[in-house]
Amino acid sequence: MAENTQIDVSRLTFERAIEELETIVKRLEDGKVPLEESVTIYERGEALKRRCEELLRQAEARVDKITTDASGQPTGTAPLDVQ
Fold first, then answer.
1. How many CA atoms lie less than 13 Å away from 55 in the CB half-sphere?
2. Has UniProt tagged this entry with the keyword Ribonucleoprotein (predicted)?
3. Which structural domains are found in the chain, ordered by start?
């Protein structure tokens, strides 16, 4: 785990960040991590969570819905309203 904390969170892909976050959660749930290390990896987990949320917002902003005409033929795309 120590080597992972050296990787800049802002450079991680969503998949890599979520994988590391899951590892941190499992380690914390096991309860076998010393207190000081628990605090350190918890902070890392918070940074990873924020990174995942940021990447999801970016992906949502790029998602388009396909627009169609009256006969159902695709006519283009429009921003997807996810509210």
1. 16
2. no
3. 9-70 (1.10.287)
